[in-house]
Write a structure and sequence with these properties.
Helix content is 35%, strand content 12%. Helix 5 packs antiparallel against helix 8.
């Protein structure tokens, strides 16, 4: 095993050139190794220690922090999330304090609101794509938020004691199976295990066939070795059947074994954990926060979920007009199959002959997406749009390498492109060169040509978003594609805005070589607060050989996801959506989405200038309204408008992206004229409030916008000292709901405006601590300096 320090030394694996060591804990064949000495040796050599682990196992085993790990990674599937033929599942990464500012993606930071109450906010890391753009090194965008919430709530319901009882049940059954196989004369590989038994057998294929005939899939390790992993659903009958198939004997477990099993499962003998020696048992407490220790009845859990959901503005309450996100209706009929056992309870490495229906559905989804986009082939493996970008760029890189053009390392990216593009190019080993846009938001052809001439032999690709993130259709998109092709480059068309193209135009026809498609946008998989996402990569025929591969599929190219088909269990949503909509429905949806965006742009244009329009004065599926002039004339910022929208019961549009001081609005085809008018009325009412500031009716420092959002708590303050009434604060024009009005019930924000500066400095609290601590106990110098 890699944990053997002697072996590491003898083979020269740990020398001064080694930058990191990755350990599996428990190991893939079940062994639980003592990694302390190996971690110490790695640290002495200056290498970081990464431990890949299992959350359920860690409820019984010492955590990696105990033996010196620097980074811990893993998967939360064991906490109540179905296998789903590979996903979606929420992965996690935990680091020591000194590495936290190098982590990719977003962290939740603890902050305070305008009333001094504790609040939470997302803090963007310094390497995130929206901050540094072409210098970004992280393209992580989609997080598996919904799955992380499911796993967290599973932990809330069971609590630390319940999780340990589940883990003991799993572990004890594995130990019982191991003891039974050893009693039959077979040799098992590991003395200390958690949930996996590896056993030496005369003929692995024969054993696997017998087990399959009995209804069980075992893992083939080698020609004479199989492995069996158990979970908490495993019964004694399962153990008897599996043991009988392996040993070719009629195995019956006696009453003494059952009694011993029940004793350990119940936790009555809490000092024992099956065959785990004392050195391999966890001694530290975990999950000490209140939320993990008070919701252990179904009634309390239901009320906790309701309390949390009431704090959110979701699509069931109001339109979410986030530009570039396509927050559309996810119909219940589309999502029903996700819960069917035939989709949810399937292992990602199930033999193909047992999942013929899954493979048929996957093939049909690929064919549907090819028909929509005009491309020749699709890989469904990427788990997110950002991952799809990465896979597409790898396909381009492999294509150039196959032609002996290894020097092509330049990726041209217009300033109108989607936010993750530059970071994806950096991750794929390409140098980013930005192409400017003209005053109308289109690619500046002169600047493009100058850069093509300058870097012609090095251009690997251009990444364009069509329609662009500026909310317009590039007038010269075919010309752009032709010019890049003329110098030997490939055209990557970002599929983030595909909701403006389906049934109307095909990227694979008008010049694209590769695109990623956001199934969690255009094709109706829910966003889930940030995930699950699926970002298939679609390519022209000449790039098809370079799509992501997987060892399970005997394909040569490297994988971009642990499972061959990524988050397969949510693909039925897209299959249902396309089948029910059909060509006419998809085309109608695209036309309606474009119509809705133009309706909003026209209604708001007198109050808020529309920043970019096409040559005929129209926008695509989204519009950007410019609020920068209001900052100078009334002291009102884009943040103030966004926060005031909360009082009107709306989620804000996308703020300050791609242009600072603007709002990007995308209504999608899902919103009715009633809801769109309600949103427009709210924006126009806010403009009237801004005019009241300009007219002097409100001061710049005290008005309904700069103090928004207004909580119920602040309205109850006896010392109401604002120059506007409580009614204006909480119930602005048109928001009073009656039984006959289209307005929903009043949404009360749980916190006031959050101090963003404080939140940025408080990243020390970005991960919930094991115990609550006060600010005066924090030793972070940045936080101390902020007071």
């Amino acid at each position: 095993p890699a944990a053997d320090v002697e072996q590491l030394m003898q083979e020269g694996l740990l020398d001064d050139n080694c930058f990191a060591v990755l350990f599996q804990y428990p190991e893939t064949e079940g062994c639980v190794s003592d990694l302390a000495a190996a971690c110490e040796l790695a640290s002495e050599k200056g290498a970081l220690v990464i431990v890949a682990t299992d959350l359920l196992a860690l409820t019984l085993l010492p955590p990696p922090s105990d033996f010196g790990a620097d980074i811990v990674v893993g998967n939360s599937q064991r906490f109540g999330v179905p296998m789903g033929f590979g996903g979606p599942h929420a992965a996690f990464m935990a680091t020591t304090d000194k590495l936290k500012r190098s982590m990719p993606g977003r962290l939740v930071g603890e902050s305070v609101d305008s009333h001094g109450n504790k609040a939470y906010r997302l803090a963007l890391q310094t390497r995130e794509q929206h901050i540094r753009r072409e210098k970004a090194t992280s393209n992580i965008c989609t997080a598996q938020a919904l799955l992380a919430i499911m796993a967290t709530l599973y932990a809330c319901y069971h609590g630390p004691a319940g999780l340990q009882q589940i883990a003991r049940r799993v572990h004890n059954r594995a130990c019982l199976l191991q003891k039974t196989l050893q009693a039959a004369g077979l040799t098992c590989g590991s003395k200390v295990i958690f949930d996996t038994v590896a056993v030496q057998v005369p003929d692995a294929d024969a054993v696997i066939k017998r087990a399959c005939d009995a209804g069980y899939n075992l893992r083939k390790v080698s020609m004479d070795r199989v492995a069996i992993s158990l979970d908490e659903t495993c019964t004694l009958g399962d153990l008897e059947s599996v043991a009988s198939a392996i040993t070719e004997q009629n195995v019956t477990l006696g009453f003494a074994d059952i009694e011993q099993l029940n004793t350990v499962d119940s936790g009555a003998n809490s000092g024992e954990s099956g065959a785990l020696p004392i050195a391999s048992r966890r001694s530290t407490r975990f999950m000490t926060q209140a939320c993990f220790n008070q919701y252990h009845s179904e009634t309390e859990m239901m009320r906790y979920l309701r309390k949390l959901s009431d704090r959110d503005i979701a699509l069931d309450r109001a339109m979410i007009p986030l530009g570039s996100c396509t927050m559309k209706l996810n119909a219940a009929a589309e999502m029903m199959p996700v819960s069917w056992s035939a989709f949810s309870n399937v292992h990602p490495f199930t033999p193909p002959e047992q999942v013929g229906g899954y493979h048929r559905m996957i093939t049909e989804v690929e064919q549907m997406l090819c028909a929509c986009t005009g491309y020749a082939a699709v890989s469904l493996q990427p788990n997110a749009g950002s991952q799809g970008e990465f896979a597409g760029l790898l396909a381009i890189a492999r294509y150039h390498q196959s032609r002996g053009e290894n020097d092509r390392d330049i990726c041209l990216i217009p300033s109108s492109a989607h936010g993750t593009n530059p970071a994806s190019a950096q991750m794929a080993g390409m140098q980013v060169i930005v192409v400017n846009c003209d005053d109308c938001g289109n690619i500046d052809l002169d600047d493009l040509q100058q850069k093509l001439d300058q870097y012609s032999s090095r251009v690997a690709a251009i990444m364009i978003t069509y329609p662009s993130t500026h909310g317009v259709f590039e007038v010269h998109v075919r010309d752009v594609c032709d010019r890049v092709h003329a110098v030997g480059g490939q055209v990557y068309i970002d599929g983030a805005n595909l909701n403006a193209l389906v049934g109307v135009a095909q990227p694979g026809v008008f010049g694209g070589d590769v695109s990623h498609l956001n199934l969690h946008k255009t094709f109706c998989i829910p966003h889930g607060g940030g995930g699950p996402g699926v970002g298939p990569v679609a390519v022209a025929e000449h790039l098809a050989p370079y799509l992501p591969g997987h060892f399970q599929l005997d394909e040569p190219n490297g994988a971009v996801s642990a499972a061959p088909f990524g988050s397969a269990s949510i693909l039925p949503i897209t299959w249902m959506y396309i089948r029910m909509m059909g060509y006419r429905g998809l085309r109608a949806a695209t036309r309606t989405a474009i119509l809705n965006a133009n309706y909003i742009a026209r209604r708001l244009s007198a109050a808020y200038p529309v920043l970019y329009t096409g040559h005929n004065g129209f926008v695509a599926h989204e519009c950007i309204i410019d609020t920068r002039g209001l900052k100078e004339s009334a002291g009102i910022s884009v943040d103030d408008i966004a926060k005031r929208l909360i009082d009107y019961g709306f989620h804000a549009p996308t703020m300050s992206f791609p242009v600072a001081g603007t709002l990007m609005i995308e209504p999608t085809e899902s919103e009715s004229l009633i809801e769109i008018d309600r949103f427009c009325d709210a924006m126009l009412s806010i403009f009237e409030e801004i005019q009241s500031v300009q007219n002097g009716d409100y001061t710049r420092s005290d008005n309904p916008l700069v103090n928004a959002p207004h909580t119920a708590e602040c309205l109850l303050d006896e010392q109401w000292e604002h120059c506007y009434t409580r009614k204006i604060a909480a119930y602005p024009a048109g928001t009073a709901a009656t039984l006959d009005s289209p307005a929903p019930a009043k949404y009360w924000p749980p916190v006031g405006r959050i101090d963003n500066v404080y939140g940025d400095k408080n990243l020390v609290c970005s991960c919930p601590p094991l115990s609550d601590y006060r600010l005066d106990e924090v030793t972070d110098p940045v936080l101390q300096a902020s007071g």
